[in-house]
Amino acid sequence: MLVAFRKMHGLGNDFIVIDARAGAAGMSAARAAALADRRTGIGCDQLIVLEPSAHADVRMRIFNADGSEVEACGNASRAVGMLLGGSQRIETLGGVIASTAAPGGASVDMGPARFDWDAIPLSFAMDTLAMPVGWEALESPSAVNVGNPHVVFFVPDADAIDLARLGPLIETDPLFPEKVNVGVASVVGASHIKLRVWERGAGLTRACGTGACAAAVLAIRRRLVTAPVRVDLPGGPLEIAWEPGGTILMTGPAALSFSGTFDTDDYPL
Description:
Layout: E1 2-10, E2 13-19, H1 29-36, E3 46-51, E4 58-64, E5 69-70, H2 74-84, E6 87-92, E7 95-102, E8 105-112, E9 134-135, E10 138-139, E11 142-145, E12 149-154, H3 163-171, E13 181-189, E14 192-199, E15 203-204, H4 209-221, E16 229-233, E17 236-241, E18 247-253, E19 255-263
Parallel strand pairs: 2-3, 4-6, 12-13, 14-16
Antiparallel strand pairs: 1-2, 1-19, 3-4, 4-5, 6-7, 7-8, 8-18, 9-10, 11-12, 13-14, 14-15, 16-17, 17-18
């Protein structure tokens, strides 16, 4: 069976988007990982399946490149919001979010930030603002759940950190029972930070929307910056607005790269 897809990206964080609202596409971890493979598949950081929703305008399922299904993806949320147009309520495993399309992108209300240790989740109770833990030179991070779990280290120079080596060690540490996304951030100005992210199940990516939300919220919480915050990622900037007790508004670009089809016989379940 031929299945139509769109290849999209947000700041270079790329997705395969399959609209299955009119009929099931039949997705599994094995098929998602095979399609995501950049040598033998279509290639992507995340694969997105759109389905009907009983609670919102559309349901968005998110599969990382390793085939794991996850709760949230900020860049994909903008891409889907732009693709669908107008204002949309999007159901995810992390909750219902709201998008408003704009020329060349979208603004997405990602919902509230959660800081309790068991909401991240961590394996045991601790202060999530300045965690008494460290991995080599990376120490005293902050943690937040913005639909998915993030730990962020504030460092003098984010580019100087060997995140390709330290990222997978932290991601899979027993402290994080559901694994974790790992960010390293540097303060550039009063409302400006620079960020790199090791994404759970995807590795280093050019941009991570939920990572930008997490880093901005935690930088505000630590009184390092004031909102709205410009977050510079390797792929480009995002704007994050948040006030304590409120929801997180993420604004930035998205783009369609190309469209095509694949044969499900080539990618078995």
